[in-house]
Design a protein that fits this description.
25% of the residues lie in helices and 32% in strands. It is of the alpha+beta class. It has a single domain (4-149), classed as Aminopeptidase. A hairpin with a 2-residue loop joins strand 2 (50-56) and strand 3. The protein is globular, with a radius of gyration of 15 Å.
Length: 153
């Protein structure tokens, strides 16, 4: 599997890229996880939001969103972390996280990173230096936990 990683400021996204990332998020978060929620939260085109996309040919197979710390109370916020169902089990999620952390450091060096993890993925994110920040909570019927990474590994 050869993946081309592209990270773009929201103002540089083409309409096809925007459509592809919204489609992938919808396929996984709404349809596959059977979770009706408002994915379009007003943050995709806000501030200095950046979108990291992993392309296999012309198919978007991995994605995450980086929200800038100015609009998020001081932390870079990683969210909407997703891989296409067809690519799971091949290590793509790990590469996505590595690329996401690299891009966060590139755009916002030395800034802490926060994410809202589905609770069952707490150990996965801990492998990347994230520690629990706060109490568990339920969002859209799914248990979550806030996690924060203060320094780069």
């Amino acid at each position: 599997m050869t993946i081309e990683w592209v990270c773009k400021h929201h103002s540089d996204l083409g309409k096809e890229q925007l459509y592809a990332l919204l489609k992938l998020r919808d396929e996984v978060f709404v349809v596959e996880q059977k979770c009706a929620y408002q994915d379009l939260d007003g943050l995709d085109l806000d501030g200095d939001t950046c979108h990291l996309m992993g392309w296999e040919g012309d198919e978007l197979v991995a994605y995450l969103r980086l929200l800038d710390p100015t609009s998020q109370g001081g932390d870079v916020v990683i969210g909407r972390v997703v891989t296409a169902e067809s690519t799971r089990g091949k290590g793509l999620g790990h590469e996505l996280m590595k690329q996401g952390l690299k891009q966060a450091e590139k755009y916002w060096p030395e800034v802490p990173i926060y994410l809202s993890a589905q609770a069952h993925l707490q150990g996965y994110y801990a492998n990347y230096g994230f520690e629990v920040a706060g109490e568990p909570y339920v969002e859209d019927g799914i248990p979550h936990i806030g996690m924060r990474r203060v320094s780069s590994l």
